[in-house]
Amino acid sequence: MPDYDVVIAGGSISGLLAAREIAAGGLSVAVLEEDAEIGTPEHCGGLVSISGIQNLGIVPDIDTIENNRIAYAKIFSPSSCFEIRAERQKVIVLDRRKFDKQIAFQAQKKGAEIRVKCSMRSFGKEGSDYVVKTSEGNFSCNFFVDARGIASIINTNRDGVLHSAQYEVYASWIEPHTIEVVFNSQQYPGFFAWIIPTGRGRGKVGVAGRRINAASALQTYIDSKGKYSVVRKVYAPIWVNGPLQSFVSDKTIIVGDAAGQSKPTTAGGIYTCGMGGVLAGRALVRAADKKNDERQKQQLLLKRYEIDWFSMFKPEFDKMLLARRLLERMDNKAIDNLITAIPKEIVQEASVDGDFDLHSSALAKILGTKGAARMAKALLGNEIRRLIPES
Ligand SMILES: Cc1cc2nc3c(=O)[nH]c(=O)nc-3n(C[C@H](O)[C@H](O)[C@H](O)COP(=O)(O)OP(=O)(O)OC[C@H]3O[C@@H](n4cnc5c(N)ncnc54)[C@H](O)[C@@H]3O)c2cc1C
């Protein structure tokens, strides 16, 4: 039976980054991916900040970037719209099919082994060995990393899952440098519709929402925009309930979407899930060191990953969860009122100072304006103080 220090189930951003770090630390590691190709089928908008990608230790190859200039964002409520400048956020659109392969190559160069069309079925102790059972036979290992994405977390709490649909669309109404976000509590309850341009007349158009038929909601949205051709369709669940309480249990370490590490506001996870992979990989290298053979010491070293991820992201995620609760309580009238209550100069200020990956300070700035704060307080009560302390 092939034997590794670490076996990882899931060959996407979090699993591959964990593998890169583990292999760089000198351990043997295999990544098992059930699909036939890394990065495919792609189920991502690919929107991320350059600084986020740099923090993950990646300089994207030129051909992985589908759009390197997102200059504006148009935000629609049911009966109004405003535009903000987004250039300062330095946001790009990645082709995840190519980007994930770039990380796979990074990991492989450090010594990781990647196996596609290999589906993990179970992990457990058999005699004195820890064994991962797969469609391609059994593997033994000292540690197992679960990076299987939503497939792993979906049954823990169905309430945290929203349905999404995203199509790749060719249409002249797609503006090359402008993201569109459309709030409508009837059509996309608890979420929004979006357009992410990948070039002139090309883009990814999607919707998500609680208990909606995402395919028909997206069809209605695209039909309302004008002429188009759809060249690819993806339906995928997204997770919006925030992180699991714990990412480490004995020999199993959970990373990425499998650990609930995507943002509760936008379900964006390239940066926060990727960081989960990086931190877990580094903690595993320390825990696997022969000097740290004692079980208790090993667990403490693995828990370091959890502590590091939570200290980087928990305060942000708590605020994003609150913003999510606010959105879920708003009807269309409340969305309209809120958007018209926010002074345009505050929106511009927030868009200049804000951070695309961690956006609670921009949210607090926007919701802290007089009219908006009053509305937010009416919907959230005193809880709003966790988002806007002075309210
Ligand atoms: C429609 C949509 C749009 C999105 N847009 C954005 C965006 O614009 N920006 C952003 O930052 N994030 C976005 N996201 C979120 C982002 O795609 C995820 O957060 C991120 O890909 C999570 O990475 P991951 O490695 O944790 O899991 P995943 O990318 O979900 O990968 C899990 C991998 O595990 C594999 N797997 C599953 N089960 C097994 C098994 N039993 N054995 C072996 N392999 C298995 C899967 O095939 C998959 O390759 C979007 C998500 C969706 C659905």
Give me a quick take on this structure.
The protein is α/β, with parallel strands linked by helices and 391 residues long. The chain has helices spanning 13-24, 50-55, 96-110, 150-153, 214-223, 270-287, 295-329, 332-341, 344-353, 360-367, 370-380, and strands at residues 3-9, 29-33, 47-49, 65-67, 72-77, 80-85, 91-94, 113-116, 120-126, 129-134, 137-146, 161-170, 178-182, 193-199, 202-209, 229-239, 248-249, 252-254.
Verbal overview:
By secondary structure, the chain is α/β, with parallel strands linked by helices. Among the domains are: 3-65 and 94-156 and 243-316, FAD/NAD(P)-binding domain (3-Layer(bba) Sandwich), CATH 3.50.50; 319-386, no CATH class. It is 36% helix and 27% strand. The protein is built from eleven helices and 18 strands. Strands 1, 2, 8, 9, 10, 11, 17 and 18 form an eight-stranded mixed β-sheet that branches. A hairpin with a 2-residue loop joins β10 (129-134) and β11 (137-146). The model has no long low-confidence stretch (mean pLDDT 92). It binds flavin-adenine dinucleotide. Residues 9-15, 32-35, 43-48, 119-120, 147-151, 164, 166, 206, 236, 238, 256-258, 262, 267-270, 273 line the site of flavin-adenine dinucleotide.
In the predicted model, the low-confidence regions spanning at least 5 consecutive residues are none
Structural class label: alpha/beta
Indicate the mean pLDDT. 92
Q: Which ligands does the model contain, each kind named once?
A: flavin-adenine dinucleotide
Beta content: 25-35%
Number of strands: 18
- Shape assignment: globular
CATH topology of the domain at 3-65 and 94-156 and 243-316: FAD/NAD(P)-binding domain
Which CATH architecture of the domain at 3-65 and 94-156 and 243-316 would you pick?
A: 3-Layer(bba) Sandwich
What is the assigned CATH homologous superfamily of the domain at 3-65 and 94-156 and 243-316?
FAD/NAD(P)-binding domain
Largest sheet: 8 strands, mixed
Round the Cα radius of gyration to an integer and report it.
21 Å
